[in-house]
Every structure is written in C-alpha cells, then in structure tokens.
# Entry
Amino acid sequence: MKKLYFFTTLLFTFFFFYQTHTFASANSRETYEKTGHVFWDVNTKEKLVALTFDDGPHPVFTPQILDILAKYDAKATFFVAGNKVIRFPDVLKREVKEGHEIANHTFHHLHHNMTAEKLSAELEKTDTIIKKFTGFKPSLYRPVGGIYNDVIINTAIKNRKEVVLWSWNQDPRDWANPSAGQICNYVTKGIKPGNIILFHDWHGSEYTQNCQTVHALDNILEFLYKNGYKCVTVSELLYRSTQLIPDSFGIYPVKKAKTSHIDLIF
# Structure
C-alpha cells in the first residue's frame, strides 16, 4: 500500500511539474488580436497579399526566390533565423537591397519549453546580428512553428515586437516537400485580399539543390499578377489596411509612424 501511495504521489508530482513548466496558458486568436500586436491576416478590400518566407536565408534557394520576386516586382517578408544570417549575410543584404522586409524568427529556431527569458535572449541576439549587417532592428517576429501562448505573446510585446502568424488557409506545408503543383493549387484556390501566405526558403541543408517552393513560386506569382493582386511586405499590408502610409515609398530611411512603435523599413 505504501508503494502504491509512493508511486501515485510521484506520478502526480511529475505531471504537475511537466504541465507547469511545459504548457503555458494560451488564449483564443480573438483575444490576442485585440491587443493590436498579433496578426494572422488583414481585413482589406484591396487586392493585397503578403508573401512570407521562414527559416532562411538559404545560400541557394533564397537567391532563386529573390530572382522570381524581382521578375514580378513583388515584395516579401523574410523571417530569418539568426544562426543562418551569420552564415549567409550577403543573402540577407541582397534581400534588403531589393526592397524586401526582414523579420525576426529567433536565433536557434527553438520552440520547446520556451520561457520569457529564453525568448527575450533569442530575439535580442537575432536583432543584434540583423542590425550588424543591415543597420536596423526588425519590428516583426514570428514564433517558431506558429506556436503561441501567453508567455510567447507577452514576451514579444514587451520586446517591442509585432507578432505575425499567417492566414489559416494559406499554409501549404511546403516544409514537408509536397509537389510544386500541390503548393501552387493550395495557395491559389483560397487566395483572398489581406492574406499572409506562409512559405519556407530553407529546405534540407545548405547543400540541398532542389526546392519545390521555388518551382511553385513562379506559377503562384503569375496567377496573382493576372488576377490583379499585389504582393507587399507585411508592414505595408498592415499600414495600407489602415491608410497610415502613402502608396509609394523608398526603402530607407527607417521611419516611425506616430500612432505605432513599428519601424517601417520602407
């Protein structure tokens, strides 16, 4: 009986500790959106969408993506990992030079057992390395794996970040390496004004030479172009939807709107 009590107590203690330290409480999407700092998409009638690319920069695929974006005069937002920026800073510099937006996707691409202290350190380290090569700190942040809870959201806001997820109908799961046709069909069949579309520009390793996302992108942009859509950065999408910025702008200098702390890298 004593053994049973001992093991029952031990089991209860384990689960209590595990839940307390592993699972932070999470609220609904609506609750987080009401903070004004968390976004899945934007409510707009303009045919504007934001293409976003996670986990890069990649030495092969990101330059190929940049070539395709330039072909259609499309702008994108790159949520970069700090440990990739250190290895491939010239790719990051090209992204900025060609008018794209850089955003924070943590340094080590961690998502398990994320504490406020750990996330703050990841954000700060990534900001520092991005500023080293570009001269500015990004204002946007995307949680790794799209995982969010009170700790992640509150910590990001305290670190002066806008949290950007993606439209629930615009995750083609390209990281799982579906065919280019599947990626293209998934994105185009459900496209709506204000969508934030999720892609990945890092696949495999730095030596990987083939990427279905790259193969799909040309057809996706051709579809968007023919159907009257314009691809803009996430920050432009947010500000165009609230009419806080003009239609045309340059990439520098960094400007700050009076009504928000977001840095506009336009």
